[in-house]
Model the fold of this input.
Amino acid sequence: MLIGNYNNRVSLKGRTAVPAKFRSELSKKIIITKGYEKTLFLISEDEWEKQLNTVNLQPLVISQPREPDRFILGNAFPIILDDQGRFVIPKSLRQHAQIKEQAVFVGVGNRVEIWDQARWQEYQQYLGENVEKIVNSLASNQELKP
Done:
C-alpha cells in the first residue's frame, strides 16, 4: 500500500525522482497522468491495467463516462524509471499540476499523487480546517442512499 508523503526537487526540465519508499511498489514501469485537484497520478502498470478494465466496462453511448476517460487516459504517458527512480514529468502535465521547483509525492493507497509543494501546503491547511465537515457530509450522503 502506498502511504505517506515525501518532498522532492524538480529540475527546470521537469526531472525528478520517485521517493525510494514508493519505488518497490510501483516498479520501474509506471504510468503518469493528470489527476484531480490539479495533481498528477503515478500508477504501476499492474494497477493501470486493473483501472482500464473498469473503464472499459462503461457504455460508450453515454457522454459522462467518456469525459473522465478522456481526462485520465487521454493525458497518460508511460514512464520507465532509471536505476535511481528518476524520470521527466512531461511539460503538459507539469503545467496542469502547476509544478515548479518542489513537488510532494503523496501515497494514497493504489497510486501516488504529485502536488506542487505550495499547493500541497495550502490543501493541507484546507483539510485541517474542514476535515470534520467533509467527513460529516460524506456520512450524511451515505445515510441517504438506500
User: Anything to note?
Assistant: The chain has a mean pLDDT of 89. The two ends are 31 Å apart (CA to CA). Residues 117-144 form the longest helix (28 residues). The first strand starts at residue 2 and ends at 9.
